[in-house]
Amino acid sequence: MVTIYWMRNDLRLTDNPALCFAVEQGSVLPIYIHDTGVEKECGAATRRWLHDSLLSIDSALKGNLRVFKGEPLEVLNKLVADLKPDAIVWNRGYEPETIARDTKIKSGLQEQGLKVKSFNAGHLWAPTDILKKDGTPYKVFTPYYRKGCLAASVPRFPLQRPAKINFVETAVSDAVDIEDLNFIPKINWDEQMMRHWSPGEQGAKDRLQAFLDGPLFNYKEERNIPAVAATSRLSPHLHFGEISPNQVWYAVLDKCEQQGISVEHPDVDCYLSELGWREFSAYLLFHFSDMVTENFNVKFNKFAWRSDNQQLQAWQRGKTGIPIVDAGMRELWATGYMHNRVRMIVGSFLVKNLLLDWREGEAWFWDCLVDADLASNVASWQWVAGSGADAAPYFRIFNPVTQGEKFDPQGEYVKTWCPELKKVPAKLIHKPWEAKTDILRACGVELGNDYPEPLVDLKASRQRALDAFAELKNVS
């Protein structure tokens, strides 16, 4: 029996339900299709990561991955005509466009008499399985996670890597090399970024082990300190399915058992709930598909966002004159990643201090983040804007100075990414505009020359935002 296994964001051999099913049936043809017809093409940073991840999984499959580009149904129909397979399997995606595409493909293949099966391999709980007692979806995280997910069922235990895979030996036409997908940028801006990462299943396992052996049991507090390597940094590996959330979940539980520590330990509970937030984002997108472009809270449809391309570009380039904002945006550009606490700070600054549309921030993150996940990106930006589900209230405006003083008290994070400020005293590094000119001169800094003047006055822009957002209370 011949089974085509269609790989997507599940680029691993361990805990792979579709692959395990295909192996049990007989011979397997693993394929990857670069879908050229998607409305929202993945960003430049994720394309670069995907190139290396595909090379890694092809090596793990002993060179047997067959890569195609085009419209998936056309590619699959051609393969069906050439190979006469018995079945086609894949692991599900729960994004709106993916669901529509897969539903059409599944129907078309079944009409040809093929066995078609799909599996949930990327989520601890399928978005279809968690509903309130009245049958409606949750809109608030805590009851979703505590009452819905945790009370519903334990996550599926991870599957073992197949001991042996019998690959289809028949040659296939129209396959291309991974390099032919053109994911490597022509201008080598990616070299610095990729030095920070090891894409692929082994890289994901190594990253998980480092987290378990180090930051896990100090996670709740230290995760907020951007200068400390206290987070798992697994998000890009999870996005591409190089490791499953089930593997991470049970690895954490195993570590607790080894250490004799309860899974209710605050650090452990906090970390597992972060996996829950990833689940919640996918859940919201599944049930409220228009949130990709539309405000979850329809009152925000009446909000008059400003348009200022000069300020937007200053934010994108890390030249706002607000040190922790600039540090975050420069970290993003250099590494394809940004510390989560800082993501909230730079997001709040864009949508509240600058009053620029959250969609502008979402688009920039989509292109620059190696962990750019549609559900998480959209849900997070709508959260910080106040327009999303379980969102930060409109009057919650992160003060980047006090946030910096609290979570980067010595300015270590700022000095890493804004080296022109490295000699500024810690008490002034988050607000250099308050320093006397002679102090800045002694530090080798001239505002407006070596480092920008603040793009806006934080106090005045905060009040402007409060006044603007308060108008939404009157919208019916």
Written account of the structure:
This protein is of the alpha/beta class and 476 residues long. The chain has 3 domains: 2-121, 3-Layer(aba) Sandwich (Rossmann fold), CATH 3.40.50; 122-159 and 201-287, Serine Threonine Protein Phosphatase 5, Tetratricopeptide repeat, CATH 1.25.40; 298-474, DNA Cyclobutane Dipyrimidine Photolyase, subunit A, domain 3, CATH 1.10.579. Helices cover 46% and strands 6% of the residues. The chain has helices at 17-25, 44-60, 72-83, 96-111, 141-152, 190-194, 201-213, 219-222, 235-239, 245-259, 266-287, 309-316, 323-335, 340-353, 358-368, 374-385, 400-407, 412-417, 437-442, 458-470; strands at 2-7, 27-35, 66-70, 87-91, 115-119. It has a 5-stranded parallel β-sheet, with helices on both faces. It is globular and about 80 Å long. The protein starts with a strand and ends in a 6-residue tail after the last helix. The mean pLDDT is 95.
